[in-house]
Design a protein that fits this description.
Layout (H helix, E strand, L loop, with lengths): L2 H8 L11 E3 L15 E4 L5 E3 L4 E9 L2 E7 L8 E6 L1 E3 L6 E2 L4 E5 L9 E8 L2 E3 L18
């Protein structure tokens, strides 16, 4: 299924917000080990509740490199399925838990990922990082005419 068709059927929510300030945007790396930003950072103070942006199954909830991480796998999104990740967080659900959109799944933890506290939100299909903002519904862009 095409990604845009999935967005219309998933009914996605912002994990914090709505809508939160985007502190740092997605900057795809040139290669698998190149510099970049493999997600977006959403402004959120420590203790902010993180909501499941859509229904899914928690497939990981625990520490990675000293930070709490939660991964939500989205059913019906193709092979391999889309996975959305959140860090730094303190998970409030365990791996194997099936959740609905809007279910509290974690709380933002203090961390050194951003100069100010934030939630790092990622999106993957297999090993390919994608821009998680494609999952959000935003107003269409409108171009205005130039000149007088």
């Amino acid at each position: 299924m095409h990604l845009m068709a999935l967005i219309l059927t998933l009914g996605l929510l912002w994990p914090v917000g709505p809508p939160p300030v985007i502190v740092r945007g997605w900057q795809p790396p040139a290669g698998p080990y190149a510099a970049g930003h493999r997600g977006v950072d959403l402004a959120a103070p420590p203790g902010t509740t993180v909501l499941a942006p859509t229904a899914g199954t928690v497939t990981f909830a625990g520490p990675v490199g000293g930070r709490g991480v939660l991964t939500l796998t989205l059913p019906g999104t193709g092979t391999p399925p889309l996975r959305t990740t959140f860090s730094p967080v303190t998970p409030s659900v365990r791996a194997g838990t099936t959740v609905r959109a809007g279910t509290p799944i974690a709380r933002v933890s203090p961390g050194a990922h951003c100069p100010e506290s934030c939630l790092h939100w990622g999106l993957l299909r297999g090993d390919l990082y994608l821009n998680p903002l494609v999952l959000t519904r935003r107003a269409p862009s409108r171009l205005l005419p130039t000149g007088g």
